[in-house]
Description:
alpha+beta, 4-stranded mixed beta sheet, single chain, 3-stranded mixed beta sheet
Amino acid sequence: xxxxxxxxxxxxxxxxxxxxxxxxxxxxxxYHPDRxxxxxxxxxxxxxxxxxxxxxxxxxxxxxxxxxxxxGMNGMGGGFGNTGDMxxxxxxxxxxxxxxxxxxxxxxxxxxxxxQYRKGADLRYDLEISMLDAMTGKEVSIDIAxxxxxxxxxGTGAKAGTSxxxxxxxxxxxxxxxxxxxxxxxxxxxxxxxxxxIIESPxxxxxxxxTVRTSKTLKxxxxxxxxxxxxxxxxxxxxxxxxxxxxxxxYVVIHLRKQDGFVRDGDDLHTxxxxxxxxxxxxxxxxxxxLDGHVKVKIxxxxxxxxxxxxxxxxxxxLGRRIKGDLYVKVNVNVxxxxxxxxxxxxxEFAKTMGEVPKDAVQKNDSFFKKFxx
Length: 374
């Protein structure tokens, strides 16, 4: 089981962005492979802290992780991994380690890693679904506009028959060493923009980017129990990375349509029913509406207006778990606005039995009737 990401970096859950970054840098220096050659344990630890930083340094992923943890995220798109902008991570590491290791091999190592892990852009898609779809789960097809790998150059960005060349300015490191007094630090090469490679003859189709704008249809599985605002991550479904780098991710934001007669509260549902006076007084087995049909509920004799009935496990599934929320039914009693003569007589006699009208009283007309019921 994966460790808590906050525990991995050694910071409290409420840690600030700067505290997270500081803790990451400290651990990255300690466990970097160049400092621990051949140490598999250090290598795994290095991957672990990068994964944790990838999530906690990204506000959207951090919010999702804080809400659902590892298990919840696995149910919403395959979990985490080295899916963040690792280019930024290795860029930060280059600034940190450049002075410690003095450039050279270390600088090339970071720049190579930066190229390897640089990703395409993440995309967002807003999807509106019904409450029923959110309750039962559903596979939907969506059309997204994204950048895909250029088929002409196969993502290299170079014109057919040509290839990329080592940048002569930085000699392939992607960095330039700058000295100021006693200090030395690395800056991104202005010619190759940190790539270490340059394209002298760009592909005419993609103009050297390695990607082109396309439209693609994707199938997305909506898990049971998603709520309004839930975000599903589809790994690798974002823009393709430049020059063959890995693609970004697609984030599908869920919006629930309102449904007449129902209100969602977390995993529970609330609805109302109307009973006649006789039904509430005598009791009845009532077909209570649900999102996907009806369920029979026994209404006890003498049920009062405003009574809340609980119907177990007729709400939403709890995300990532098998148990469900409940359905809460508010009972309203429908009072008729008008009565015919026979109904009035019956109700008058009923009032006598209840002691609300004198037993020797006679219903002569409406005004007499109203004397007791106004």
